Amino acid sequence: MNTKCRLALLVTAAAGLIEGAEPATATRIQHLVVIFQENVSFDHYFATYPVAANPPGEPRFEASADTPSVNGLTPDLLTNNPNSAQPFRLDRSRQITCDQIHDYTPEQKAYEAGLLDKFVEFTGRTRVTNPPCEFGLGTRVVMGYYDGNTVTALWNYAQHFAMSDNSFETTFGPSTPGAINFVSGQTHGVVPVRDLGDLINLIVDATLIGNPRPAFDDCSPATNSLVAMSGKNVGDLLNQKGVTWGWFQGGFLPSARKPDGTAVCGTSHTTVAGFTSADYVPHHNPFQYYKSTSNPHHLSPTSVAMIGHTDQANHLYDLTDFWNALNVHNLPAVSFLKAASYQDGHSESSDPLDEQVFLVNTMNRLQQSPEWESIAVIISYDDSDGWYDHVMPPIVSHSDTLADALSGTGNCGIPTPGAYQARCGYGPRLPLLLISRWSKANFVDHQISDQTSILRFIEDNWGLGRIGDQSFDEKSGSLLNLFDFKGGQGRRLILDPATGQPVRGNGTDESEDHQH
Fold first, then answer.
1. Residues 6 or more apart in contact with residue 74 via CB below 8 angstroms
2. Is residue 327 part of a domain?
3. Largest CA distance in the chain
4. What's the CA gap between 441 and 352, in Å, rounded?
5. Which end of the chain is less packed: N or C, by CB atoms within 10 Å?
6. Residue 516's pLDDT band (boundaries 50, 70, 90)?
7. The whole model's pTM is what?
């Protein structure tokens, strides 16, 4: 028996002594991995799916003949769009795109009561960067979209597994509300900790609508206001039931420590487009807003056997810890993966090609692991970045604060008595893909879902109960239609991280004549 196998057996035995066997699941899924990416609307990546332009010099994409259609951009929306600029294709040479305006109020104005015709005016943004991020288009860049010659891996995953074309951000707004909704379905209950004068624009009626930094994180910059969140999140529910879990984020491991032990997060990377960004982004880590699930000093787990269990790391880890756990077969029941900033898909600080490298390398390793038979991977996003999308979301949560503007100033419907305010939603449509042995294949789900549908799947699969306190998990749609638990149609698909195309002759379950 080699050293790695002996270590795996020791870890398995130690984990069993720590908390006993994992609770039973309601489905065949014993390990859920959620890859939580950044700032992409559905149309920004899938506007013309499954038809790609296929120009010379770019990776080709040819769809299967039986590929179902998605609610994408029709020929009329491509050439006679109600916005002041027409949608246009971004090719692989245009990797660095400007970070668009994606705040709570401007996004509502862009949707203009369902007309969806003011994106250029309210969410389009131009910035002076080197290299340039708007190609001389100014705010019209907000209408740009990629196709299967650039986001090739995602289109191939959609071909071989399952995706939704009707999944939405839980509310309008930027990254932090999206991340908080993702883990709790509840952006109400904000507690200001340090106000540098801008919280009046980030909090409305004790509800979070902006990006203040988390109070329980050494790496939150001194130049930002800090807040904490009250209430419960899914980590609390998992802990109560003794279910192992972890949030794994690139750059979480401190690059240094100050004399008092305070963590310093100083690592960075440069994208293929030439933009350098810090790996760790504090406001992208939702669990650091809750004292109960925080790891302020970025402490490492006491051992590989403790990953997923409660120790000094308190379930928050560096991304490398996820692979350390997988290598010794100690994968937590629920794992949330957040790429380092340069690979998370966020406009300007990241790009589709760097994101593709992360997604493909992650999926290749997971599919080649012994645990693959019991794993489901969900690829999802925190917000739309303000990128154009032509679908009006169903408004299931009304609000009439001065920050609302969906149908005029102060208007996002009439809230019911006692409802928490400043939670206008659903917000923009986002990509959502399911990759699993137990997914349907080449399937598009049209049922309505939102970010808390993932939360609800976790709650139901492990019998956790609900968050309560008006969490959106009570009204979220189900993701079960993406699965096929009787036969399981999802087959292994090993891709090239550079091109996003299948790697032939590598042991993939897919035959040669089914490659795209």
1. none
2. yes
3. 69
4. 24
5. N
6. very low
7. 0.94
